[in-house]
């Protein structure tokens, strides 16, 4: 098994007598996007700051390793392996985009020629060549974010922390940013993403953790999280009215849509449930023309997990990766 990009055990942090993080375990596989969600003030930025060595973890935290290095004993090695772009950009508005890039190259002690090459490559890759000689203060929000990420990449980090990278961007700029993030991951970079946009996590993240009340309320793929919430169903559509009636009789609990000749069968979309539905159809010798699985969206998951009523984990034991803690 390869070493995880991030392995944090019992992450704790308190401000005064308020425990913001109260024993959070996080494991992020290399080359994946991991998204941390949570309501305002849940501790997402605090987590990013600890993992990126900007603030120290609480003294009673367990071992925290980033890029294989122990955060407590080798923070320099961690810093060398990571890049961070926060909610407050590192871009200096008074100088040009190119000068910002060259400043970064200097900070990373790149030889002058190498620094120029890296800066030019990244400006090209992030579609900033035309604006490179203009002061960064004249850039749009999307351009500033692109420059910010380009600056982070000067040091060739293997792990990037993106703290709300698309907040305030219009939909097109947000989609551009998603493409950039996908490109980074395709190059093998690990991305630790915090976001307020659940669709963003849904689109990008391999795994999602929901932070609430100092702990991880649930963790899994977007699909696994959606299956934790009631409201999912399997929709069966028929063209033959007799088949529709036969199925309706066989599947007692289904909600009928007479007009569309469709049945909505409450289901978590898990394998066992689907088997049972198909077995009952088979036993009644009816065949659906179309079967679709509908799961709640991440908004439903977020509200359920952070609003008090944490749903029970579904009965299916064949989904061991799914966890409500
Ligand atoms: N330096 C500090 N001193 C005291 N309290 C702090 C400090 N930094 C953060 N906090 C508190 O810790 C809690 C977590 O803050 P944090 O910024 O990590 O939350 P967040 O999940 O990133 O929120 P948001 O979505 O609003 O950015 C908040 O209640 C915040 O007020």
Automatic annotation (TrEMBL):
Annotated Gene3D superfamilies: P-loop containing nucleotide triphosphate hydrolases
Membrane topology: Peripheral membrane protein
Chief localization: membrane
Start and end residues of each ABC transporter domain: 6-238
Localization (cell): Cell membrane
Alphabetized GO MF terms: ATP binding; ATP hydrolysis activity
Alphabetized UniProt keyword annotations: Antibiotic resistance, ATP-binding, Cell membrane, Membrane, Nucleotide-binding, Translocase, Transport
Family: Belongs to the ABC transporter superfamily. Drug exporter-1 (DrugE1) (TC 3.A.1.105) family.
The name this protein goes by in its record: ATP-binding cassette domain-containing protein
Organism: Streptomonospora mangrovi
Lineage: Bacteria, Bacillati, Actinomycetota, Actinomycetes, Streptosporangiales
């Amino acid at each position: 098994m390869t070493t995880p990009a991030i392995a944090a055990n019992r992450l704790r942090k308190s401000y005064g007598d308020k425990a913001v993080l109260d024993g959070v375990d996080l494991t992020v596989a290399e080359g994946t996007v991991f998204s941390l969600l949570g309501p305002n003030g849940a501790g997402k930025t605090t987590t990013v700051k600890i993992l990126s060595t900007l603030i120290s973890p609480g003294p009673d935290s367990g071992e925290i390793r980033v890029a294989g290095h122990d955060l407590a004993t080798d923070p320099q090695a961690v810093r060398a392996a990571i890049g961070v772009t926060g909610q407050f950009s590192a871009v200096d508005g008074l100088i040009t985009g190119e000068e910002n890039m060259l400043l970064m190259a200097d900070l990373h002690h790149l030889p002058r020629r190498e620094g120029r090459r890296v800066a030019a490559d990244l400006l090209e890759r992030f579609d900033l060549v035309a604006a490179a000689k203009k002061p960064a203060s004249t850039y749009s929000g999307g351009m500033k974010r692109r420059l910010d990420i380009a600056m982070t990449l000067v040091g060739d980090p293997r792990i990037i922390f993106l703290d709300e990278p698309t907040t305030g961007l219009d939909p097109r700029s947000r989609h551009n940013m998603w493409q950039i993030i996908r490109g980074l991951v395709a190059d093998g970079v690990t991305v630790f993403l915090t976001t307020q946009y659940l669709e963003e996590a849904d689109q990008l993240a391999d795994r999602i953790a929901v932070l609430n009340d100092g702990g991880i309320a649930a963790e899994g793929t977007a699909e696994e999280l959606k299956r934790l919430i009631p409201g999912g169903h399997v929709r069966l559509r028929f063209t033959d009215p007799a088949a529709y009636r036969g199925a309706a009789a066989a599947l007692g609990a289904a909600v009928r849509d007479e007009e569309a000749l469709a049945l909505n069968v409450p289901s978590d979309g898990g394998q066992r449930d689907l088997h049972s539905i198909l077995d009952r159809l088979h036993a009644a010798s009816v065949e659906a023309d179309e079967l679709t699985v509908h799961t709640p969206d991440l908004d439903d998951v977020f509200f359920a997990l952070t609003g008090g009523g944490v749903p029970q984990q579904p009965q299916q034991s064949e989904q061991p990766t799914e966890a409500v803690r």
